[in-house]
Amino acid sequence: MRKLKLHIRLTLDGFAAGPNGELDWMTQPIDDKMMQYVNAAADASDTLLMGRKMAEGFTEYWMDIANNHPESYEFPLAQRMVDIPKVVFTKTLEKSPDNNTVLAKGNLTEEVAKLKKKEGKDLIVYGGAGFVSSLIGAELIDEFLLFMDPVIIGNGMTIFKSVDKWQKLSLEYATPFDCGVTVLCYKPKK
Length: 190
What we know:
This protein is α/β, with parallel strands linked by helices. Helices cover 30% and strands 28% of the residues.
């Protein structure tokens, strides 16, 4: 069975974005070792899950880099983000944002269970905060890859808003990068 892996950058005080979705706190330049890690995590998956809000700008952002910025350090990842099949969880969208995306309109737990049962590599989710919070609250995440940026913003969007009971996790490893970001990998204790 495929695993659902959360791959997300957080501030040291646990926010995925500022109060209005700002990402301006992500000022740490990504070093080569971290980019290799990010690419390896992306290569281990073959389906990307997103909520509607994130889907609105995600594909456009990565298509711009893939089509117009081959000099960017994100270029190899950009092509991967454009090509990877995507599933957008939505109650309101009627049409897929691109031809490589399908809509999931049913119950979150049931839809994710169906995807986990399909053949293939693991599933990955990068954000946004509300969608990820729903996945965590429903205990659907099999591996947490938390990229902790060395910044404190004091207020913002959390990915733990929907959690209503304890979830015990086991630290698998911690990987610091020269840029100051540290990846903490946790798995749920069953």
